Amino acid sequence: MFEKTVEALRRRGYEAVAVSTKEEAKAVVMKEAESAASVGWGGSETIKEIGARAALEASGKEIRDHQTMMDLFLLSANAMTEDGVIVNIDGTGNRVAASIYGPRRVVYVVGRNKIVPGGVLEAIVRAKKFACAPNCRRLSKKTPCAELGTCADCDSPDRICKVTAVFDRCPTHTSTLVVLVDEDLGY
Ligand code: SF4
Question: Which domains does the chain have, with CATH numbers?
Answer without folding.
Answer: 3-116+162-181 (3.40.50.10420)
